[in-house]
Structure formats: structure tokens, C-alpha cells
Amino acid sequence: MDCIQSYVWIVPLMPLIGAVINLLLGRRLGNRVVGPLACLTVFISFCASTLLFLSLTKLPAESRSFTNLVYTWVLVGDFRAEVSFLVDPLSAVMILIVSGVGFLIHVYSIGYMHGDKNYSRYFGYLNLFVFAMLTLVLGDNLLLMFIGWEGVGLCSYLLIGFWFEDKKNAIAGMKAFIVNRVGDFGFMLGFLLLFWSLGKAGVWTIRFTELSANAHLLSAGMVTAITLLLFMGATGKSAQLPLYVWLPDAMAGPTPVSALIHAATMVTAGIYMIARMNFLYVLAPSAMTVVAVIGAATAFYAATIGLVQNDIKRVLAYSTISQLGYMFLGVGVGAYSAGIFHLMTHAFFKALLFMGAGSVMHGLSGELDLRNMGGLKEKMPRTYWTFLIATLAICGVPGLSGFFSKDEILWKAFSSDHGHWGLWLVGVLGAGLTAFYMFRVVFLAFFGESRTDKKAHESPGVMTIPLMILAALALVGGYVGVPEVLGGHNRFHHFLTPVFDRHTEVATHAHHSVGLELGLMVISVVVALAGIFIAYQMYIRHPEHPKALAERFPRLYNLLLNKYYVDEIYHAVFVRSLLGLNNLLARFDLGIIDGAVNGSAWLTKITAKWSGWWDNTFVDGAVNTTASAVISGGSVLRKTQTGRIQNYLLIAIIVIVVIMVVKII
Amino acid sequence: MIIGLEHYLFISAILFSLGLFGVLTRRNAVSILMGIELILNAANLNFVAFSRFVTIGISGQLFAVFVIILAAAEAAVALAIILALYQNIKSVSVDEADAMKG
Predict the structure, then answer these.
(1) What CATH fold (topology level) applies to the domain B5-100?
(2) Do residues A432 and A331 share a domain?
(3) pLDDT in tens, B3-44
(4) Phi, psi of A72, deg, nearest 5
(5) Do B102 and A645 touch (CB under 8 A)?
(6) A133 assigned to some structural domain
(7) Total domain count, chain A
(8) From B20, B23, B94, residue closest to A644, measured CB to CB
(9) ipTM of the predicted structure?
């Protein structure tokens, strides 16, 4: 046993330490310490993750899994909830992505956030975010996963609303939090339903390994309900239809935060969760179909919105939603490893794209509108080249990382038992749109004449070096999963396979020929290249075309520009109706509840008045009457006290005489 | 005419009545004191008379002597009180000494 295997807890603990130190002592330590400290803690996590990964590869393929029990948290009868970390190929890949990409984003942040007055708070939150995500992927039971799940939700809220002085940002943070809450509600219901229904079947457990071993005890309907509820959680966290609305607004936070949310943490949680719960999804084919259809629909839908957006970060946000749709399409057709593969390559190029956009912003002092950019190629060469590589990767240009992962998903969508050619077609169309809108960004931002007065300048090394590292990863990251049909070994796939049920993973190549796979691959590449070509035609050769097109189809253009009015619809349907209900309840509260309270107060007042009157009149009256009777009696009797001895004497004598007379008679 | 007990008692009653009348009607404290002397002497007369006509022995006369001594002492004390009263209210009229009025 490798000794690192009992030190898994170092991975999540280090960012937590960083977060605690930065949040509590950050102001006193000063900015020179805070940034490097935050980077260091994540770097240690990354090193530990790498060691764990290496120790995992040394094990035989069948037994590549171990848990590290830190302590038993809850112990009730046979049921136990532990703080225990599970390392298997899936979580090993995830912690590598989270800590690796997270580390680069931390380094980049040192340059990007330079001079911000809340520097230490920023890095504290960033570390906390990484901690929450690592807990999510490492936890070996549902409860620990849930803690991480809520933790990333919290951190996203804190970071999106980081510049909360501007009300717009604070609202974006709240929006993210509330929309996530809707999804989390489903996740929690699914998690509790799973726990309860397995418990009814005799197994009270929340550990993934035990859940997996006992999943067959559940009835089919129950599994479908659980998986759909869990998927509802995933749509919230991973920004799928219909709960994607928070993600485009999430760019209100600092740009590295967007990179972190969109690439390494947060949005990947939903994909990871479904991959982790694959043993349930395998038992619920209808739920898998739902996942695949929602994924494909989101992939296409978000891509269409991305076509016309003018805000560079907004385009990237919709592309993230679209790419996450591909991942769900992958896991929905049972190709879990393909989904995770795309998650990894996407983490590389999406982090790169966001950090490139941040670098452009940095160079143009905060400019976000594509219409005010242009001609940055010469002024920001490093940003340009890295951004271009990422764009080529996301478009699926052969040879780059995105090509391998996206193509594997599309192939599985076509060929897998759960797949359908319709899903494939939607995916390919989405890929074409992706190629178009990504190159639109590149052409508008980096080519042509400059359309701004601002003096652009290249960002400092601390920002561009992470860009270059990520560019290298985006270039070669796909080669760990070269499919067999192209002469590779798809090692990534084989590495992950033990985690997933093998019945769903294999048995795809059996029905279909190599020629078909290659043919489909060529089609998707051609579609992507066509997208790039159209973008070139419209934005380089004939820059007047886009405007003419928008004027010819104003309705469609406005529909896309306004994001299908989904925000407005949600506002009208949910927010307004909630506010209406709110009003109604407020009126009920004011009218009935307050009325009842006031009425009882009024009643009390009246009875108090009555009893006060009774008290004043009768009780006090009796007392006062006694007193005044005594006083008046006294005032009568005092007259007998004349003070004259002779009077007294006279009375005494009269009385004596009277007594004597009476005696005698 | 044989002078009997009834005559003494009659005289004594007249004396007592005169004394009582003086005590009740006079406003001057000294006059009241004199009335009291009359009452005391009426009592003395009764003592002596009863001692002579009713009981054998000297107990009645002895009491009369006690009363005379008491009257002397009483006169001394009463006069002292009257002096003190005069010093306080510059008068010996008992009508003006009504501080005990209720």
C-alpha cells in the first residue's frame, strides 16, 4: 500500500487552510503573502492529487479504488456517515482537473486582481471554492458530496457577487444562488428518496460503493424517480435547460471566477454526480433518455443564443452551457467516460478562453463589448495565440483536444444502445454553430481595425504564463483518449471503465463498422470547418453582411439577442407570480393575521377598560368609602375631644349619675 | 333635736355639691382646686360620720387624716402645675388650656 493513500485528506484540507488563513488573517498578512499562499495551498493539493493518481495507476486495473477514512461523523445503530474520501479513476481525474486548472486560475488571479481592495477576501473565497469542489468529488458518500455540492453553490454566490457594491452584481449572485437552490431541492429529494427507499429494502447506507452494490434492490419506478430528481439537481448546478439562466449572469464576478466556475469547478459537478451515480442511471433507461435529450437540446439551444451576443464573456457563457449539454448528451447515452473526457478537455480550453477574455479586458481596461474591440492580434500576441488555440480546440478542429472528446460523444450518441441519430444530428449542428460563434469572437476581437480609443497592452507574465500552460494542455490534452479507429488506444476510456458498469460501455463497436465511425467524424469536422468558413466570410471578407442579415431577419435576430426572452418569461411566470403570491400573503397577513392579533388586542383593551372601571368604581369605592366613613366619623367624634377638663368631668359625673339612677331603679 | 348621721350626711352632700359645682363651673384653675378641697372635705366628713355612727374603731378617722395629707400633697402638686401652666400660656383659665383638643 502506497503511503500517500492514507493522506488523501491533504487534498481538500490544503485549500481549506488557505481559505481560513486568508479570510481571517488576510488583511494583516498583506497582498504579497495572500496571493502566493493561496496558490501554494492549491499547488500542494495538485501535487498530492498527482501522487494519488500515480499510485492509482500502479494498482491492477480491477482494484483501482481505495478509501481513506478520516473520522466517523455520525454513528446511529448500523448506519454510519463518515468523513471518508474515495479515490478511484473517476475522482482521481476530477481532482487533477480541479486542483490543476484551479491552480493556474489562482496564479492568473494574482495578476488580474492586482490592486483590488478586497484581495484577501477574493483569495479566501477562491480557496474555499476549490475546497468545496474537492470535497464534492472526493467524498465517498452522498452526505459529503452534498456538503461539497452546497459549498460550491455558496462560493459561487460569494464570488459572483464579489463586487457587491454594484447592485447588478449582487443580484447576479442572488440569481445564481436561488436558481441553484431550485436544482438543489431536486438533488436533495433524490438523495433522500434513494436513502429512504434503500433503507426500506433493508440497507441503510449512503456510501457509493454500498449503494452501487445494492442498487438492484430498488424498483424500476423508484430508480427512475430518483435519477430524474438527481438530474434536476444537475441541471441547476451544471446550467442545463431549464435552469441554465444563472450562468450567463455569473460573469458579473471577476473573470478568473468565471473561468473557475465554467471550467474547473461548479458546473462540472452535475456531470460528475451523474457519472458517479451511473449504477442508478443504468437501471433507468428512460431517465437516461431524458438526460441525453436535455443535453442535446441545451447544446443546440445555447449555441444559437451565442451566435449574436455582443458581450465576449456572454458568448463564452453560452458556449459553456452548450458544451455542458454535450457532456450530458455523453453521459445520457451511457458514454460516461466520453462525458468525463469532454469535461476535462473543456476545462482546459474554457478556462483558457475565459482567462484570455479576462486578459483582453485587462488590456482594454474593462471593455467587454466585441463591437468595441478589434485588431488586438498585434498588440496582445500571447493572448491572441492562446485564445486561438482554445477556439480551435472548442470547435473540434482535428488534432486538438476538443476534437477527440466531442467526437467521441457524438459517435456514442449515434452508436450507443441509448443513442439515436437525431441526437447526433442536433449535436453536429450545435458543433457547427459553436465553430461559427467562436470564430466570430476571434475575428471581431483580434482581427480587423481597432474600434476603440483605448490603448491596448499585453497582460503581465503572471497572467500570460498560465494561459500558455493551458494552451499546451488544450493542444495535447486530447491525446490521452485517441479513439481506436484513429489508431489510438483510448487510454482515458480504459482507465475510467472500471468505475462504470461495463455493460453500458462496451458493445457499441459491435454493430457499427469502422467506416461509419470515420464517416461521421468527417461529417462533423466538415460542419465545424463550414462554421469557421462562414464566420470568416461574414466577419473578415464582408463585415457588412452581419448587419444586413440582422436587418433582414429582425425578429429572429432580436429573439436570439434577447436570449429567447427566457429571463423575461421566467420573470413573468415565476418571479411575478411569486411576487403576486407574496402580495396575497402579505394582504392575508395584514388583513387576517394582523386583524386577529389586533382584534384580540382590542378585545383585551375593552375588557381591561371594563375591569379597570370595575376596579376603580367598586373595589376602590369600597375602600374609599370605608376610609371616608372613618374620616367623617372621626370628624364627628373629635368634637367630643374638647380639650377642656371640665367637660370631661361633667360627662363623667352625668354618666355616674345615670349609672346610679339605673342601678337604683 | 338629736343630731344624727343623716345631718352629717346632708351637710356632707351639700358640701360635695358645692365643691362639684365649683369644679364644673369655675374657669380659674385655683378656684377649681378650691372646689376639689370642698369635695375632699365632704368625703372626710362622711368618713368621720360613718366612723362615729356605724362602725366601731378608728379606721374612718384614720382615713380622714390620710385624705387631709393627700389634700395637702395634692394642693402642692396642683399649684405647681398651675404655675407651669401660667408660665406657658400666661393664664390660669382652664378654657385656654385646650391643647388636647381633638
Answers:
(1) Helix Hairpins (1.10.287)
(2) yes
(3) 888 899 999 999 999 999 999 888 888 999 999 999 999 999
(4) -85, 125
(5) no
(6) no
(7) 2
(8) B94
(9) 0.81
